[in-house]
Amino acid sequence: MRNGTFESSGFVLASLALPGVLGTIIFFNGLYGIGESLVLDCEDGTLLRAKATPNGMIGYFIGRIGASAAAVAVQVLAILVTGWFIVGGVALDSFSAWSTLLWVLVLGLLSALSIGAVLGATVGTARGLFFVTMPLMGVIAISGIFYPITALPGWLQGIAQVLPCYWLGLGLRSALLPADAVAIEIGQSWRHMETLGVLGAWAVAGLVLAPIVLRRMARNESGSKMDERRDKALQRAY
């Protein structure tokens, strides 16, 4: 994409896509990673042990959020540094840009991880979580992550702006791209307050809902259910 430009704007597509790649890593890997961890922890008894410990579920949830956030942050840092040299066009040359990148990363991670925890605790199985990834790819596709959302039909733009993925990409573009890149955005504005509001709302809603769903998931766990799942897995293996 280094030789392509967006319509007649003159902006290189590779530079516009780099923040989108970072946003995809945060949204998809954060959401799917913690959801998969919850499912596996449920199957191997980790969740059952946490349930039997005083305040174990809260500690478990905080630990999972922290571990998943650290893993995704390392991936983001690796892609950012690599893309900075290979693609170029990154404009992290001011305190404002770095501070914007920081709060967008924090809110983006919290929203993705908390939503992933809710999904993982709700579907409860690896197969169910796999099928959840199909609509997630659709959400990413319409969110302006890889191509400016202004090139999409208006009704798709409306749907995308309800979801956190679009605002995560917008916030990252506002931090990483030169100021004149705002010309290709909706309303020719980075809309920081709206980004803060939407990502913050998703993060708060997820962080409130996730412990409730996790406690409900843990209440349904028992040693007999875990043994039953293990026996079924052994039967499939043989």
Give a written overview of the molecule.
With 238 residues, the protein is mostly helical. The chain has one domain. Helix content is 74%, strand content 0%. The chain is built from nine helices and no strands. The radius of gyration is 20 Å and the shape is elongated.
Descriptors for this entry?
9 helices; 238 residues; mainly alpha; elongated
Number of domains: 1
Order of SSEs, N→C?
A: HHHHHHHHH
Q: Write down the Rg.
A: 20 Å
Termini, distance in Å?
47 Å
Structural class: mainly alpha
Oligomer state equals single chain
Query: Mean pLDDT score, rounded?
Result: 82
Number of strands: 0
Give the strand content. under 5%
The percent range for helix content is over 70%
* Helical segment count: 9
Layout of secondary structure:
Layout (H helix, E strand, L loop, with lengths): L12 H32 L1 H6 L4 H31 L8 H29 L2 H16 L12 H7 L3 H13 L15 H28 L3 H15 L1
